[in-house]
Amino acid sequence: MKKFALFTIALLTIIMTDFTDTHAAGNVKISYEVTFPEAQAHYADIEMNITGLAQNSLDLKMPVWTPGSYLVREFAKNLESFGVEANGKAVPFVKTRKNIWHINTTGISAVKVKYRMYSFEISVRTAFIDVTHAFLSTSGMFLYPDGMLMHQSTIHIVPYKNWDKVSTSLEMVNNDPFTRTAPNYDILFDSPIEVGNQDVFGFKAAGVNYEVAMYGGGNYDKERLKKDMAHIVELETAVYGENPNKHYTFIVHNYAKGGGGLEHLSSTVLGASRNNYNTETGYQNFLALVSHEHFHLWNVKRLRPIALGPFDYDNENYTTDLWIAEGFTAYYDNIIVNRTKLYSTENYLGVLAADINIVENSQGAKIQPLSQSSYDAWIKAYRPDENSANTTISYYNKGSVAAFLLDLEIIKDSKSKYCLDDVMKYMYTEYYKTKKRGYTDAEFKQGLEKFAGKNLDDFYKKYVNGLDAIDYNKYLGYAGYKLTDEYADSNIPTLGTRTATTGPLKVLSVSRGSTAWVDGINVNDEITAIDGQPIADPKNLVAGKKVGDKITVTVTRDGQTLQLPVTLLRNNEFKYKIESIDAPSAEQLAVRKKWLSL
To answer: Could you give the domains of the chain?
Structure first.
């Protein structure tokens, strides 16, 4: 009885506390002003004003990671000069955690918080500021009040000198492009902001207005991009049956050498190489990147693993399903470009074969299951080291391969009635729109089985949770194709090392099971001679040698010279290509037509 009474009192206390906090938060107004007095030194000054407080304390928090990039990045490390004022007087505070500032607000209804953010990391997921522009990756810039994630906020930007544009998916306030509002912090943290003199153009597709903001110049053709990007949008919208946005923003950062992308709810940030738009490969790669990140507006931003929302911004958010969220998207980015008919079917099959080569030439594919690759993203995928290729597999590449296998399985089993598109649309409708939540691993598997018309336990056991060798020809055979290895009959020796491309021949990695692995050539060794002779061809260290030859490799290790006797082993890498079989059957041609939209 006493335990029950104590529990009841505690429960009532929690309920009353929650009501009080919610009620207090309902009267709170939050605004930010962002200025750039020292843009040349990569700083943004942020003033955060909070009014309507009716509580004795306030915790301000900085997210430790950004959704879509599964690594704790410790954004608080870039924050400095934190201070609090109320009624023109300083208010004491204490830092209670790496990303939390605790403020005593007894008798205080409004506070002004000032801090500075150092922003000098070029990537699609981190903030960068200089005199040419400011890219505000919002999850790494803005503090938020604990317990008020669902609260509205406004952001006013004071541009640096001659900056005249703001590009973001956040809505304007009173038609002022420099003042934006977010209905809650999940949306604020999912809406990056580009400020500067970016080249802005737009198009309309699937009933949605699209803005493209190009920073850094480049040899792009705006009219061509409008047409081809719109085509991609239309094709991806067709997969799901609707486009849930009113408007969407592409922020593109063009550098001498750039790449990567990060998806957001109604926008994306892309990295590109400014002078690659006028080459066939460069342009196709850019369209595939557009396709990938835009496809995410459904797959992962709305149709998502159940662990990825609501977000915990303080800690890792673990899931075994990144192979679906990212891997399936990696599959669709190229299959959608193939559907545009801008490139030949043979070109697409070459891209698919390249994915297979990456998976099969990765020693980590024999060590780490696909589902575990997803779960360990937080500690492995974004923290690669010299041995990562031997111990891990990318959930992008192998997830893409799994998607193409499942696509062919569904097409074949349904007699070309269904394909993976039907699964994606069903899951989007069932979980995002109807149940309004994410899916579990078992639920996504059930969705696949619904359209395959059979149990997929064996597939999951072998290829998702297991390490079985993939039977590619079984699946490609459904469409009348086969996989052939151009290196199958070769007998070429190799050390199995990857070395620096400039300067001394420093070993960067050693492949598991290779000559170097077996005979003890180490990462960081500098290779200086083979059989006592200076290196003649840095790109082929064992030119003129045969498999089985015993040679001496001279290395410098920690300032000492070592003579390492090694026995050359065969290069066991694969170079696959996809070819049509002779005389495919009518059934195989039907699968091929459905798969490749012929």
So the answer is: 24-196 (2.60.40.3650), 199-282 (3.30.2010), 322-483+588-596 (1.10.390.10), 493-570 (2.30.42.10)
Q: Amino acid identity of 215?
A: Y
The pair of structure tokens assigned to 56 is: 């004795």
Name the DSSP class of 440.
Answer: P
Are the C-beta atoms of 483 and 473 separated by less than 8 Å?
A: yes
Q: Per the structure block, which two tokens stand in for 136?
A: 């505000």
- Residue 341, phi-psi category: left (phi > 0), alpha (psi -120 to 50), beta (remainder): left
> By three-state DSSP, how is residue 577 classified?
strand
Residues 250, 270: contact at Cβ < 8 Å?
A: yes
- Asked if 402 and 463 count as a contact pair (C-beta separation under 8 A), the reply is yes
Q: Are 522 and 495 in contact (CB under 8 A)?
A: no
Structure tokens at 158: 């004071």
Note every long-range contact of 514-517, with CB atoms under 8 Å and residues 24 or more positions apart, other chains counting. 514/569, 514/572, 515/566, 515/567, 515/568, 515/569, 516/566
Crossing angle for the helix pair 345-360 and 329-339, to the nearest 10 degrees: 160
Burial class of residue 375 (count of CB atoms within 10 Å of its CB; 0-12, 13-18, 19+): buried
Taking residues 190-206, what's their average pLDDT? 98
Q: Kind of pairing, strands 193-196 and 165-167?
A: antiparallel
pLDDT at 584 exceeding the cut of 50: yes
Torsion of CA 347, 351, 352, 357, to 10 degrees: 130
Q: Confirm if 578 and 338 have CB atoms less than 8 A apart.
A: no
At residue 128, φ and ψ (nearest 5 deg) are -145, 135
Give the pTM: 0.94
Rounded CA separation 55/26 (Å): 12
What is the pLDDT averaged over residues 343-372? 97
Rg (CA), the chain: 27
Q: How far apart are CA 570 and CA 267, in angstroms?
A: 48
Query: By the 8 A CB rule, do 214 and 198 touch?
Result: yes
Do the Cβ atoms of 2 and 126 come closer than 8 Å? no
SS3 category, 334: helix
Hey, how many other C-beta atoms are within 10 angstroms of the C-beta on 243?
19
**Where are the strands (E) in 150-266, listed by range?**
153-157, 165-167, 171-173, 176-182, 193-196, 199-205, 208-215, 247-255, 261-263
Q: CA 556, 557, 560: angle at the middle one, nearest 5?
A: 70
Task: Encode pLDDT of 310-350 as tens digits.
Answer: 999 999 999 999 999 999 999 999 999 999 999 999 999 99
**Partners of residue 112 on adjacent β-strands:** 49, 85
| Mean pLDDT of the chain, nearest integer | 95
Q: What is the DSSP letter of 305?
A: B
